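not sure who needs this but someone in the group chat was asking about Gap junction protein from Mystacornis crossleyi so here u go. i didnt clean anything up, its just raw.
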Amino acid sequence: SHIRLWALQLILVTCPSLLVLMHVAYREAKEQRLREASGDNYRCIYPNPSKKRGGLWWTYLFSLIFKAGVDVVFLYIFYRIYSNYTLPRVVKCELPPCPNMVDCFISRPTEKNIFTLFMVVTACICIVLSLIEAAYLIGKRCRKCLVASEGDSRRHSHSCSVSRADPVGTGGQVFHGADYKPP
């Protein structure tokens, strides 16, 4: 049944989003437990629990790829079952319990064809958007890692000896350069 396929597709596409929401809720609960246990000595683990960092970044990336994969699989299933994504008006049925070939009529085939077309177009848009967002997240992470490694190599490439004694008139502050970020 195409209606059951649509329902299954919608359920499988929304499940990864629920997984991301559960991950954020887990982070918030962990933060709350730590806050209650530590009292005044509380040190924040997640300044912003819904910010995509660490494990949440991977969960979100996995959810995007999973959604795109589910949509591709269902597009393939719809194409294989209903050639060219169109439902026929009449289907010749010869499966048991029918003793011979019987004409089976599909109710409202035009309405179902329009809805199937809508589902196909929506699935294609979702696939493209999910892949673009995944590529953006990966590109942003790679760029961040490259900038961080470039900063580390710059810091280590300069052979600047700084004495332990405070330079006169600086009050203990030493200028390391414009690209230096304190730890």
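also The first helix runs from residue 2 to 38. if thats useful
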